[in-house]
Input
Amino acid sequence: MATGTVLLCFLLLLSLQSGLGWGPSGWGVPMAEGEFLSEQAAEAGRNRLGIRWYPARLRRAPAGPCQLWSLTLPVAELGLGYTSEEKVIFRYCAGRCPLGARTQHGLVLARLRGQGRAHGGPCCLPTDYADVAFLDDRHRWQRLPQLSAAACGCGG
Amino acid sequence: GSGSRAGENRCVEAAEACTADSRCQGLRAEYVAQCLSWAALGDCPRARCRRALRRFFARAPPALTQALLFCPCASPACAERRRQTFVPACAYRGPGLAPPSCLEPLDTCERSRICRPRLLAFQASCAPVPRAPDGCPRDQGPRCLSAYAGLVGTVVTPNYVDNTSARVAPWCDCGASGNRHEECEAFRGLFTRNRCLDGAIRAFDSRWPPILQEHLEPQQGPKHSLMQVDGSPEGSSLLSVLPVLALQTLL
Output
């Protein structure tokens, strides 16, 4: 009985990790999606402007190569404590990186990884940043230097 | 904040339209950076701030920069935002607490290679013309506003004087102008008693929505590898859709 429960839990965890769809009546991902949806609704409800604007929550790993992504956010959504009527553009880097290398360090590391003797893989990172500036609710200028990514590259 | 939507505050709309354009946003962030910093003597680096402002108005799309400068307002919150838009604490005020006599910036401007032509252009496009049918230069609205924008970042930078009207003036007065009092008043009157300038600023309101759509053209920012837009707000205002449409034309 206990072994069966353990097995079920194990299968559940596996399905969550691999992102398999089990259908609306199964366990695994749909239940997780249900959680996400209610979390979304709660967060959307907390949105100061009362606008429910989240799309379906993104999967952790984006398909596609390392590239620059863009989000348009109300200033409050930056979570830094500022309030403003303006929306700002926040850019970040995400995507897959090929296993190649640009430095000698990277060359050796790629070889070791290929042999299974080193962890991890190259990651998608900003190589340049840009400032974000806005007028806050008290009509004072706020400048957040180097807050947003401006270009991406694969490193490490 | 009042929590008002962008649709009710034209100046917020203009700010967002600027943010959505890479040139406008970059140049705006640059002048904010210059005008907010502090020089060694405890004052802002006025020359650098003003230079960054001139670059902003010269290089960013005019539709967007003018929308920021001339956004029509019906509330003090909107008008205060409009008044603060080019960091006037540094760019508008000079050193010292009291405004100088207008003869000072006027004389400096006339001797300046940068300021003099801009002032002449402003006088040519905005000064009343007694012989003209309506007393103003013909079809002058847009040219007058461009010429006004050209003065921002010079020693005769004009700005809105309060948040309850659309009155503008340079930071100076005609108290201590001696026997050049008339000359002083005539210069200051170009801003404070100018029907043609007032009319041009008011007329900007009627060109509003097309102005902001005009700027939608293929983006050629230096490091742009923008491939995806996600998480955009849905249906909050037309302007939130415009950047998405612009980026979709790239795909």
